[in-house]
Here is the input.
Amino acid sequence: MTQFLISMWFALARLPFFAYRLISSSISTLLAMLLFALARERRMVALTNLSLCFPDSSILQRIRWAMVHIYFYLRTFLDRAWLWSGNERVVRDRVRIENPEGLAILDSASPTIFLAPHFLGLDAAWSRLCLEIDMVTMYSNQKNPVLNSLILQGRSKFGDQLLLSRQQGVRPLLAAMKKGRPLYYLPDMDFGERDSVFVDFFGVKAATVTAVARLSRLLQAQVVPVTTKYSKGRYSIHIHAPLPNFPLDDDAESTQLMNHLIESWVKDNIPQYLWLHKRFKTRPAGESRIY
Here is the structure.
């Protein structure tokens, strides 16, 4: 059954762009309505996150954000079929780097950390950057082995990319960066208390890994934010200027600064940030559970 669905998924992606966009949008709209109605746990996670991060918004506004978010989540998930198909022409056409000067950063000889917050187009940004440069990144294993294999194959489709599981630890990552590979890193998830500090995210304490600050200091690496927006079947990537004077002297202060920057980008693109993740699951000692 899983293999059949994957085959249908990739067959859909081979349709002409107009037909693919129409059909995938219709599928995403229908499934979004069903999931919002039936997937109570994930719906409540999204609404809880939005309530915590935007307490002044109305419940109707948060419901609208959550519904649109689920639509974008499904829509961008379907797009992974053409992102992972290996068609370079299609990826270049549908995923654009909006600031050409950002490409110059890719040629930098300095060690580089691409800071990629969890916007729903992050896989599009990864695939597009893979056409320009070989990178290293870390991933979490999926419970479904078929899906896990598909993701690894898809993300390795272009260039000579190095994907390391979190179970492999930091040593191979450091070795790759010392050989000149930029790191594509997604630090804005709750990975528990290990190697994390509690800093504010929209005014709520969130366990946040300090790896960006620590790696930047250790390797004297520049930190280059990469944000992505989806619109009408296409993606635009913005490669920001390297963060000035980063890291700060203190890892917690550096991580707080990073979260504040992510907040500013989220405010500009609320429905396309990953609200289905339990970002505030790990709590400081003495605090009650949120979810």
Summary: The radius of gyration is 19 Å.
